[in-house]
User: Which sequence fits this backbone?
């Protein structure tokens, strides 16, 4: 008889449970956090707090969307945090100079987001420099610029319209309409598949995703209808998320990103313009970071040059927790969204619990490690080299 | 698949709870909830802020919801939102950024929560009351002590001064520095030879700066004025390697009166510290918060509490309770620091 | 009786979805050369990895010198020359040879002197004198690397050595040297397991043979004397292969493509040229073979035509009487020139992705199936993929299988179908059947014929002379970056080609 | 005639100059900085300032030595800055509890350096997690720990001996002796080669290096003899540098690092225990970071939990400027030393010039980018993926 050299064989029941646990590690972490917080605090599971929480996640969330693209390419962008600060300062200064809010926003997106992205992209694609070091340099430069143009001080916003951009809510009526449209769209899609392409409905992960989407929308319904409607930044963020998922999955550009991140050389030899892909991704990321800075300035009613400090690390963390491999090629925005929520719930929960800052840091570090560990173990992913 | 449904079920049951939970359920408790939101806990003094505030709040039977924001203004706004979700009745706020905190006041006001500005001025805002020391005055006091030192040790007010500033962009650092600069400008004999900010208030960076300056001016610097105690510690460490860490040789001023610095003052290494009285600051803030809640329906602050004077913050004249600041020098440590219970005698001397 | 070196019993090794080895038992004795034969994906490399201890998990037993291998007792005495070379590019030749076993002096400090000296000795034994032992691996060609990998295994001074396709990148001369060394080793009593897809090598050096198909042993282990090559092939593929090189006569048309005076500067050393003054023409429906030894510059020449060469290029490229300005592979593809590169894993495949992705991810195709703003139409994409996959007869259950789970032959077919989908005029094949079994090779050859019929022209770079001779209409021979001669199909022989490839004759000289 | 397809051809004279410029980009940057600062400031080129400068570079320098190993493996360690803070706080707390300074130092090295390194190494080698994310988690955790154990406050040092460790100088007499020994060693080596192995002397880069070393030591002679002798931290740092160069070039462990960083799989199949190499490197790096924290505490006469903030970025920058490729396998400590000096001179110079912080940041970012660009261009290195 064969003897088993391997000691890995276990009873099948155990394996199934283990597999389940591993496969859904992030969801489990999320669930445990939610359960725990609901039981221990009075305020976590209120529509208001959840609405806050979702809104709070948008600032880093917008950046993390761009960062997902960068990390899919196997790179990293450390300059986004400083860009947030620089953009916030720039947009407020422009308005202070008397420019209309929309013009200020557009100028900021172009000159802060676009130019910095171009700079990063230039060195990275033209000279094949490491994104880490190029964006580290830019992180320093952009912070210096923010300090310089703001003369080291904070700038208030007096423009009411600007403040409304991130400060107000979509009315409950419109919120209901919008969410219903989303729901309808999903239902139509399902029906379409049911009629035209039966085989899709047999795909487990498709079903899982659809259920998840429906469930998510219902949850949002509850939250936003019970509390003021959809916050503007959340609406903006949702649009960005949807567009980015669409781009990554359904456009040539998205494909190019996966190809360039998965095997640079093979992609190049397949005629894909690697340099252009890098350039575009870094520009988009910077523009999104600038946009995030603008929203932040609007939320804060003003700006200071130190805004966005260390935000790059939060964004990277969200992407990593969301299962995008730091060596590129694998992952996507949907995971990042999950990552963002894990971090936001964590921050929100610890703050509701009134934990001291020092403990918050420790717990946050532990959870980051565990979440990424769960992701790695579950997908049997490994970092190479 | 089965597992997935279990998961969904669990989540659905949560929804259930969510739906049937009335928000005002939170407000059932009768205790007044006061939110105390600091900018960070990463400086020595803030432990005291928290402790004194909690003690004072207890006296008024208020429940304190405390939080701090890791020096991050975005985070601070989020923390405020969390506090509001927890149902605070009144807010005591030390802004990370004095320039952009007005929005937080507005958010609180929208929820019917009144705001006490703590420690620093919340500019351009409709804040209800300020309880603060005057940062500008801190700088002024440091500089005046320096002028006195010049007279005493050098016979004339003539020499080189270095201003060691904190986080670039920090509004308190800015105010303190302006106070210093004004005094220097008034004394033509004084020459400002350096004015350097330090990222994260890092004391090791202040040490490096000091070493460079001493080399540059061949030890010809007479005074270092620092925006806080940590920076002053860096300066002293650098001076120590030239055996110049002595009041007789070089004037060093800090602010916050951290334990180590008070010790330096006692040992004659550092000339002065500024003690920003934290106990009265915290107590007055708790007092103001309490009054603001109790007299919710009154709009005129004059009828609610006693304050020192009104200070214009760019938007309105804010009723302000000013807490004292003191110069700490070798001769008054007992009186200023120990008697107030700020540090213990045995901690300072031994 | 010779002593038993390696014995495996009832080995089963599963990968997700595949049983790579199914109940394999065999033994290898000292002093014999044991051939492992089998098609791509038959499980040869997997068996090697089980024997050498790379895998911790498998069913069955492995004995080395009659001692059972366990997780605790891994017995690391076997030297393996792996199919995927595994050298550290940034380190020197010498350090790679002694990697993991760097020689130390009595203080425990690394003795570089001895390492260099020993490496030189080893290379000398392999009749390689032109490689500097201090040179970094990254500056060597693939064939040179192969030799270093062999030297590395030989340096281990062990008495069990496994060669997993050592000759697929070597020239005939080098192969001869290698065989001499293997023979010497055998005579010294070393046990050798030898894997190769070049079947004619078997009778040359082998003593015994085991044939694997789909993870199972076909028949028993036999003496090579008892079996004919045809029988081996039949057993390997499970059917008869009548004609190895099914060359079909196709009408060769007009000149379609020409390069003139190509010079390629070395990307690092400005004064060195990798390719010098190369000119040639290609006609419609023609297979132009290019022969040469390792490092002759064939790959770089092809890369330059394809727009992928990294250094400076001079010369003219003319397609259908139009001069092209090819700056990137994209330009080349656009103009109907495509290239199947020699290093499949590193430069051809998106290993983490499925078949779908691997076929469609070509700039041109992606653009073809997308609308103006770049939104992809997957239905159109799938149709395209299916069409070309069917055309090339890849048998796969689904297009969602990760490409890394396919055998080498199937991977190569996927790459071919991807290029076909771009509608090329000229296909450059750089070692297209490297490391493939006979069955898969013949299939690739058939595809090549089909392509010619459809009006394409092919440039075939290959180190396997029989393949070149069997398929090409004309053969160019390169030596040190230059084309030294040209043969027609009729008057080319292995011997003549080698004479020119080795530089023994120069351009214009007539042999014999 | 040949027509030129590529437009890249240039005249040869230009090429030689260009080549020279490119090849020595970092040295040229260094030289320009030194020249500029010497001309513009009175104080840059004084023994005292140079002595300061070298001493100032040791704190980040020690960390950068460890970081070189990590980056050679293709990883990165973001936790070192927090370890500096935690170690500084720990060692001072232990002394405050009355422990002897040496015992405190050893305990700190073991329990802060060793344990954290083990933690990082564990996740990275056991689960093949990305170093970036593991050490990012640890960066947060360690900072939290530092805040917790110090109760957010600064801790004084009363122990005179401890202060001396980093505060004092090796006497001028001994400094002369030590430096002379170094010089002697080099001369003996050269003589040995001259007699025994002529061909080495024909090696251009050997001659260049030797001359560089001799010149360096003479310079140190000048500086340290004119000003107080060798500062203790500089002596310590020198020892660490020498050991690390020796380890990387002449021991199995060192070569294993290059192999593992250059080609993980090849190294593994050559019998190198990749996991162990990672484990060791991360432990060493943490221990060095802890050591750096201890020296910093000694220099500062006390510690506060925020010490070392962002120092990881300085260390990474130094390594990158020094020519170690962030994708692993290429580089070494000697380059890192150069990188450290470039950064230190930059910081020192800008501080002497009295530039405001905001400009300093901008210039620093630009120089980082240029230096790494120079390195990449000169060696034709590229980041892959
Ligand atoms: N790491 C792996 N994961 C999954 N499947 C694998 C793995 N390695 C090999 N296989 C599969 O196992 C089978 C045997 O592969 P193996 O590499 O041993 O074949 P081989 O006989 O060496 O083929 P070739 O001649 O192409 O080298 C193939 O189907 C292959 O796809
Ligand atoms: N990227 C590169 N950098 C430096 N040298 C290179 C590079 N690529 C190729 N070379 C050199 O160019 C020469 C030609 O190599 P090429 O790969 O074209 O040879 P080949 O004829 O295809 O041989 P084979 O593939 O059998 O090794 C070799 O001497 C090689 O060392
Ligand atoms: O007390 C100081 C505070 O006023 C300043 O704003 O931040 C640093 C502290 O040390
Ligand atoms: Mg194989
Ligand atoms: Mg080749």
Assistant:
């Amino acid at each position: 008889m064969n003897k088993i050299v391997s000691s890995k064989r276990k009873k099948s029941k155990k394996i199934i449970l283990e597999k389940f646990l591993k496969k859904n590690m992030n969801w489990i972490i999320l669930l445990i956090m939610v359960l725990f917080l609901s039981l221990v605090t009075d305020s976590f599971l209120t529509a208001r707090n959840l609405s806050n929480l979702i809104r709070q996640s948008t600032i880093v969330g917008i950046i993390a969307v761009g960062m997902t693209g960068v990390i899919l390419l196997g790179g990293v962008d450390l300059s986004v945090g400083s860009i947030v600060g620089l953009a916030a300062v720039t947009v407020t200064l422009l308005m202070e100079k008397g420019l209309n809010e929309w013009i200020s926003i557009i100028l900021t997106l172009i000159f802060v987001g676009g130019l910095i992205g171009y700079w990063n992209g230039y060195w990275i694609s033209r000279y094949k420099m490491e994104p880490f070091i190029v964006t580290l340099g830019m992180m320093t430069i952009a912070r210096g610029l923010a300090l310089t143009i703001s003369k080291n001080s904070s700038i208030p916003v007096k423009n009411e319209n600007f403040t409304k951009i991130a400060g107000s809510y979509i009315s409950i009526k419109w919120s209901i309409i919008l969410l219903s449209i989303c729901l309808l769209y999903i239902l139509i899609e399902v029906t379409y598949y049911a009629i035209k392409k039966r085989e899709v409905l047999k795909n487990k992960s498709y079903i899982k995703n659809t259920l998840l989407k429906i469930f998510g929308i219902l949850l949002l319904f509850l939250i936003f209808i019970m509390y003021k409607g959809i916050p503007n930044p959340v609406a903006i963020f949702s649009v960005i998320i949807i567009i980015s998922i669409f781009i990554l999955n359904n456009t040539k550009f998205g494909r190019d990103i996966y190809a360039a991140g998965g095997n640079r050389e093979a992609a190049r030899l397949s005629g894909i313009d690697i340099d252009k892909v890098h350039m575009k991704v870094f520009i988009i990321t910077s523009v999104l970071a600038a946009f995030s800075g603008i929203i932040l300035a609007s939320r804060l009613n003003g700006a200071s040059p130190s805004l966005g400090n260390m935000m790059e690390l939060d964004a990277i963390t969200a992407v990593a927790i969301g299962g995008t491999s730091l060596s590129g090629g694998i992952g996507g925005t949907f995971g990042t969204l999950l990552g963002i929520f894990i971090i936001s719930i964590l921050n929100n929960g610890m703050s509701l619990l009134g934990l001291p800052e020092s403990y918050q840091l420790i717990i946050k570090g532990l959870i980051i490690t565990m979440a990424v560990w769960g992701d790695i173990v579950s997908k049997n992913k490994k970092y190479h080299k | 698949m089965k597992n997935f449904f279990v998961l969904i079920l669990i989540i659905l049951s949560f929804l259930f709870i969510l739906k049937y939970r009335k928000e005002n359920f939170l407000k059932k408790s009768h205790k007044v909830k006061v939110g105390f939101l600091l900018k960070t806990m990463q400086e020595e003094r803030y432990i005291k802020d928290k402790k004194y505030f909690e003690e004072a709040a207890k006296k008024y039977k208020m429940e304190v919801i405390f939080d701090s924001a890791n020096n991050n203004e975005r985070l601070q706004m989020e923390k405020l939102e969390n506090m509001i979700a927890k149902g605070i009745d009144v807010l005591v706020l030390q802004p990370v950024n004095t320039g952009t905190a007005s929005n937080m006041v507005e958010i609180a006001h929208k929820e019917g929560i009144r705001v006490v500005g703590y420690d620093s001025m919340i500019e351009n805002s409709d804040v209800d009351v300020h309880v603060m020391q005057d940062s500008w005055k801190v700088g002024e006091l440091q500089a005046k002590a320096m002028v006195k030192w010049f007279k005493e040790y050098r016979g004339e007010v003539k020499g080189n001064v270095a201003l060691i500033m904190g986080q670039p962009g920090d509004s308190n650092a800015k105010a303190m520095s302006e106070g210093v600069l004004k005094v220097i400008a008034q004394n033509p004999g004084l020459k400002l030879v350096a004015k350097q900010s330090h990222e994260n208030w890092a004391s090791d960076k202040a040490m490096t700066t000091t070493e460079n300056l001493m080399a540059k001016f061949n030890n010809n610097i007479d005074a270092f004025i620092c925006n806080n105690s940590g920076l002053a510690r860096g300066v002293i460490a650098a001076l120590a390697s030239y055996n110049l860490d002595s009041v007789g040789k070089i004037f060093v001023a800090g602010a916050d009166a951290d334990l180590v610095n008070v010790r330096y003052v006692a040992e004659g290494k550092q000339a002065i510290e500024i003690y920003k009285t934290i106990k009265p600051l915290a107590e007055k803030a708790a007092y103001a918060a309490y009054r603001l809640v109790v007299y919710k329906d009154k709009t005129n602050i004059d009828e609610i509490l006693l304050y020192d004077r009104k200070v214009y913050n760019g938007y309105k004249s804010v009723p302000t309770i000013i807490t004292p600041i003191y110069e700490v020098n070798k001769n008054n440590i007992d009186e200023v620091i120990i008697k107030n219970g700020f540090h213990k005698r045995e901690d300072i001397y031994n | 009786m010779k002593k038993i070196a390696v014995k495996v019993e009832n080995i089963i090794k599963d990968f997700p979805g595949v049983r790579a080895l199914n109940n394999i038992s065999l033994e290898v004795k000292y002093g014999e050369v044991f051939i492992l034969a089998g098609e791509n994906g038959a499980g040869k490399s997997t068996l090697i990895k089980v024997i050498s201890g790379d895998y911790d998990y498998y069913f069955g037993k492995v004995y080395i010198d009659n001692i059972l291998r366990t997780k605790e007792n891994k017995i690391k005495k076997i030297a393996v020359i792996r199919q995927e070379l595994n050298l550290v590019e940034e380190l020197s030749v010498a350090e790679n040879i002694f990697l993991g076993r760097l020689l130390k002096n009595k203080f425990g400090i690394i003795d570089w002197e001895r390492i260099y000296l020993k490496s030189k000795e080893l290379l000398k034994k392999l009749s390689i004198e032109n490689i500097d032992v201090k040179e970094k691996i990254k500056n060597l060609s693939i064939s040179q690397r192969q030799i270093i990998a062999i030297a590395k295994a030989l340096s281990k001074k062990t008495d069990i050595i496994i060669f997993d396709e050592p000759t697929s990148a070597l020239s005939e001369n080098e192969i001869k040297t290698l065989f001499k060394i293997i023979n010497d080793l055998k005579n010294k009593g070393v046990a050798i397991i030898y894997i190769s897809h070049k079947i004619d090598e078997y009778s040359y050096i082998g003593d015994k043979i085991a044939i694997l198909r789909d993870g199972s042993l076909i028949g028993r282990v036999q003496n090579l004397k008892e079996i004919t090559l045809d029988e081996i092939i039949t057993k390997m593929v499970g059917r008869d292969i009548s004609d190895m090189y099914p060359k079909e006569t196709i009408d060769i048309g007009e000149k379609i493509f020409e390069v003139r005076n190509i010079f390629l500067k070395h990307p690092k050393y400005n004064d060195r040229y990798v390719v010098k003054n190369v000119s040639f023409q290609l006609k419609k429906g023609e297979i132009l073979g290019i022969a040469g030894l390792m490092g002759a510059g064939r790959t770089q020449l092809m890369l330059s035509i394809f727009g992928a060469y990294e250094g400076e290029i001079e010369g003219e490229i003319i397609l259908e009487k139009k001069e092209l300005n090819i700056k990137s592979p994209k330009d080349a593809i656009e103009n109907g020139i495509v290239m199947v590169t020699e290093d499949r894993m590193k430069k051809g495949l998106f290993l983490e992705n499925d078949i779908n992705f691997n076929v469609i991810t070509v700039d041109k195709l992606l653009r073809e199936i997308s609308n103006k703003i770049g939104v992809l139409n997957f239905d159109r994409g799938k149709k395209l993929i299916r069409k070309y996959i069917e055309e090339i007869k890849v048998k796969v259950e689904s297009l969602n299988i990760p490409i890394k789970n396919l055998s080498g032959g199937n991977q190569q077919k996927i790459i071919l179908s991807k290029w076909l989908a771009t509608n090329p005029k000229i296909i450059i094949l750089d070692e297209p059947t490297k490391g493939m079994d006979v069955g898969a090779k013949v299939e690739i050859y058939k595809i090549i014929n089909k392509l010619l019929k459809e009006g394409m022209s092919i440039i075939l770079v290959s180190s396997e002379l029989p393949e070149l001779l069997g398929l090409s209409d004309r053969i160019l021979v390169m030596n040190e970056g230059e084309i030294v001669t040209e043969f027609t199909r009729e008057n080319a022989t292995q011997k003549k080609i080698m004479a020119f490839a080795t530089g023994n004759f120069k351009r214009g000289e007539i042999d014999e």
Residues C 15, 18, 20, 38, 40-46, 83, 405, 407-408, 435, 437 surround adenosine-5'-triphosphate (ligand 1) (CB under 6 Å). Chain A touches chain D through 58 residues (CB under 8 Å). The first helix of chain A runs from residue 12 to 23.
